[in-house]
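Write out this protein's structure.
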Amino acid sequence: MNKLTQLHANIDSRVASIRENNTDWQCQMGCDGCCNRLAEIPRLTMAEWNLLHNGLTALPLEIQQEIIQNVVALTEQTAQFIVCPMLDKSKGICRVYDHRPVACRTYGYYVQHDKGLYCNDILDRVTSGVLKDVVWGNQNTIDRQLSSFGDSKDLTEWFAIVTN
């Protein structure tokens, strides 16, 4: 098992535990709030990019072209929030869900208070008492593990490498 696969397994285990103890947890297919409000262009390690690229190349050509256009638009965007270029906006689902980066796998289940990186919708439910006894994962720990994978690049940079 490679390092990325092991990290995914660890994240999946924590996510399963949270979902098991909180059956009304919001993060599920169709909840695309985080995908519609990215704070910045995602950064990926080479291992994450390779996995994502495998998922992208398995998509029909017309969807690949749409995603490439969405990524190019990111380089010119001036809006405060970024919409993930892999999001199928009409269905609210990720087109490469099984190949998504670590940041996508952890969002809503892990938190990075110092950077304000957490799902506000879930935090509101925790604060109001709807969700109780929630133990968020520590995103800083995940980021340290990812940094051991080597340098990372913005998603737009990875796309520029393969499309040029």
